[in-house]
Amino acid sequence: MAQIPMTAERDASRMHERHGEVNPGEIAIGVIIGRTSEFFDFFVYAIASVIVFPKLVFSFVDPLTGTLYSFAIFALAFVARPVGTAIFMAIDRAAGKSAKLTLALVLLGTSTCAIGFLPGYDSIGIASVWLLALARIGQGIALGGTWDGLASLLALNAPQRHRGWYAMIPQLGATLGLIVASALFAFFVGNLSADDFLSWGWRYPFFVAFAINVVALFARLRMVVTPDYQKLFETRDLQPERISETLRAEGRYVVIGAFAPLASFAMFHMVTVFPLSWVFLFTKEGPARFLVIEAIGAVFGTVAIVASGLIADRIGRRYLLGYCAVAIAVFSGFAPQLLDGGVVGETVFMIVGFVLLGLSFGQSSGSVASAFSPAYRYTGSAITSDLAWLFGAGFAPLAALMLSTQFGLISAGAYLLSGAACTLIALRLDRRWEARRTDEDRD
Q: pTM for the full model?
């Protein structure tokens, strides 16, 4: 049975031979399109989990409890993601990357589109909650299969002096996806009545996400089936290995890679999902205005991500991540006061936060990928990404909202500080292990 997909993949490869070699610019475009589609999915659900699902699906509880329930379901995708990686790595080994990506993106698009058709609690009762949870798990499993290795390929095959520049390119998808998602929701919230928005307006961003997934599928398959990509796959630079074997051989790099970007991931939610929930629940401001501020902040974040590539090439990615972690720790001391400081405070909070996020997040991907040996780089990078999102992002909105409602906004700052501390510890351990590995090589 495995021969049929493999034959199809070889045929597709021959069809694309006329395009010639795939240059880094083409790979970069494919990476940006793929990451933007993934993050657009991410933010469409994240925004809806604040301004839609508490009213539509959890209307049987108060708004705060409904938002907490919504954030709990939000986390299911991150729990399911490593499971998806295990499933789709097996498909990758048996049928090839084109089959893996096609199945994963079809599942992702189907799950996302299904949420767009979701009936509310008033229509079908508690079944609405279970259907939302099932679709969210489907998204998580699919995201585990969307790992194509293009980001690692782009960074690790870049010129030595420009590794930081190439490493930041995939991260642009985060802010670009947020800009589009925030602008789209701001348009519908600002131009529809509350009843119309809750009835049908909120569904359109999910349908747009489905369309973007289709575009992303063809863009990424355009890369995957090229002879050059196949050649790198065959030479084991992008060879999928069994997860158990990868963890046994290079598990320590997975651990470091999962915890090194926690400062970035903590900041990620402190300027995206969490502040939207706080403003929506505890102020009289409408969500449309804050979504516009969020989109503007994301523009600053995009510029900062680009700057991170230039800075990292001058001082090194590890040093940049360390400096950013210290800056985030300092920011955590006055971030709560800014967020609670009205329109001006919120704007300053968002812009400064997005600049710090861009500088740190821009280099968080692949910061430890180069430590993996070629045989385990593909699978190791995928597992590392899954665990980093699980530990750093999966429960962040839920934890931050629970802490802030119980102990005040200052506790959200403490949560941000803990993420910075984890990054500094992980970078310290990575430096020690690298020194030990160097000494062993000399011996």
A: 0.86
